Amino acid sequence: MRRIVPVSGRTVETPTTVTLRFEDARPAAPGQFVMLWIPGDDEIPMSLSYVGSSKGVTVKVMGPTSRHIQEIAPGTLLGVRGPYGNAFELTPHRVLVVAGGSGAAVLAPAAEALRARGGEVEVALGATRASELLFEGRFAAMGATVHPATDDGSRGARGFVTELVGPLLARGRFDAIWTCGPEVMMQKVIAAAQGTGVPVVCSVERWMKCGLGLCDACALGPYHVCVDGPVFPAERLGAVPEFGRTKHDAAGRRVPG
Amino acid sequence: MHGPVADLSTRVAGLELRNPFLLASGIWGETGESLRGAYEAGAGGVITKSIGREPRTGYPNPTVEMYDRWGFLNAMGLPNPGIAEYPREIAIARGGGALVIGSVFGHDAEEFAELGAALTETGVAALELNLSCPHAEGLGSEVGSDPSAVEDITRAVVRRTKLPVIAKLTPNTHDIVALAQAAERGGASAISAINTLRGLAIDVRLQRPTLSHGLGGLSGPAIKPVGLACVYQVFRGVRIPVIGVGGILTADDALEYLLAGARAVEVGTAVALDGIRVFGTLVRELGRRMDELGVRRVEDLIGAAHRSDPPPGAPRDPL
Hints:
The complex is a heterodimer of chains A (257) and B (319). Chain A has 257 residues and is α/β, with parallel strands linked by helices.
């Protein structure tokens, strides 16, 4: 089940984010993830930022392993298993994408797939500063309208990307909101959409070990993010008290999320 | 439409189970919601992750290797939140009505006994001793492959709890019956057999083991014949009941274990292959198969395969 693949390309996306590409014929859909093994280091869950036969993962520095991944040179051998999990449903026609930080990594391929089916996409793209806005050019190239927001106001609106959601929903008609980012951010997106009738779909990230629905590391209330997600309709998350509050650490302890 | 007429309930170690299918330790079981979910999916009871004294993160990934549908190799490294934090997970599970069996691991008899006593306070229905994890230094099968250690540990736990104590044994030994007899002498109420078989996977391109820990434990259909042989032998060697574990994916797999002498079975790898709904399927299918076979009660199946054995010394049937 595990394939060993050489890294075929490496792109620096932002000062803290790098994309690694590799060839893998296994079919994948936008929203799905792989378990990426860096031999000698860890194996971690990574959403696919490119889902064709030339696949990609876009990694933000979070800890020692993601720092190590960023330094990986083309030609390095990696282990890949998956893709696992569910995908974004490409049924809505007009979608508002709300991306915080590295959340754009999984939302960009979903938006591309929707555009390829003739759908329309607007993007609220948030980051700490202009240089950290991920895939702004990629969203523009697919024909999406991009509304940036930065914490320091260095590009677009100053403040959180979630503050764009209300005004954008008031201005245009959307069939769905797709969001990925920190859980507290996604909660704000859900709150902003409340009462508008626009369904929100979230891509959730949790600590994972097996990726197969067995070890319980990614338990989120009654769900396992690896097999029941990572893509969840907001209604399902609303009934989960841990969402946006606590996570499980590697030992399974509940810790503040 | 009518449901199966067969009675699936069974009794093991003083526990009344609505059906013989238990969630095996280590599968789900880190959170109370998951334990509860497995019970609601149809399990007759659920066994917690093995709990130790301190929180433990387990080994780094990769911790699993999957071989199509025939086997599954893992070295999780006994991750668990520790005995101080775990009781609230049991409370969540019990709040949902689940019958919970608490699994513990330790380095020695005193540690097992201390943890057993602590778990007893949480309202679990029984204790299962992990004497059999094949990939943890100084733990699991490293203590559980010595009959005198098994006897001492079991006795120490039994002295500190009013609950039935189940000894989960390793197949990584030349004589599992000796281990089962030691647990029986120590006062165990039941034997679980088997835990995983020690195994290794190597990536030929990288020329290194794929699991971070190197050695792991093999589960799944590949080990079913081994588990059946162990249950068959242990059933003959002890008077206490046996719980069968190893490679149960279908009702017929479970039937084989019951016929070999198990009064209940544990299911683990099937959850990775078919999802937690496998419990509902197993319950439905076992009822259907028992109806087909004309068997009314699980009780009537237990150890029945032994009846067909020739007595010792009898001439073999000519072929």
